[in-house]
Amino acid sequence: MEISGEYVQLSVNDGTTMRAWTARPKEEGAYPGLLVFQEAFGVNAHIRDVANRFAREGFFAIAPELFHRTGPGFEARYDSFPSTVPHMKALDDSSMAADHRAAFDWLRGRIGPELPVSAIGYCMGGRAAFLAGLTLPLAGAVSYYGGGIAPNASNPGLLGRASGLQCRVLFFWGGRDKHIPPEHIRAVTDALRAAGKNFVNVEISNADHGFFCDARASYSPTAALLAWPLTLAFLRGQ
Asked: Given 46, 68, 177, 184, which residue is catalytic?
């Protein structure tokens, strides 16, 4: 499927302006919406490529630049994680929720009121996708190795708000991920089970953090190949 991609500028309700990458099929039609949330490394070539991949599968995708307040256009190499830390520390949940709403409203204005909008995110974006499920009327949310959903030493997490989750969620975790220990995964699933929420939990035992990103050393072609059709089936409601 041929696609078109471009940057757009969005107005956020806190008075800031946020750039976002958008991708959609070229052929006119009714396409469901998808919010694509970045890793800590920005809306870089990989995240734009992910949005493009979903567009080829029949989605209208938008990837907002969540670091627009502190680093408009920020992109970091995968071997320079320290450069991302100031931007992550400056981004709180209320600001992120405002960014989510701006992207959601923009997308809703393009696809209309009837088609579903879902969210997907990777690493930092995995947490963002879960947060979007708490604040937006989404059809579904997909979280790839989302650290900080469960409480940790530097983040209170989001599980105290689990009862407010508005959509079903698909989680992917890597069994070799040292950033998200098994007890954090259990905390997530226990909280959603206690809240009576609809979720799917997938742990790929030999995958590491970032296994879906083909630009990272931790990329696992096998794990990514397993996760891709499950993700599409979930987003399509199968």
From this structure: 177
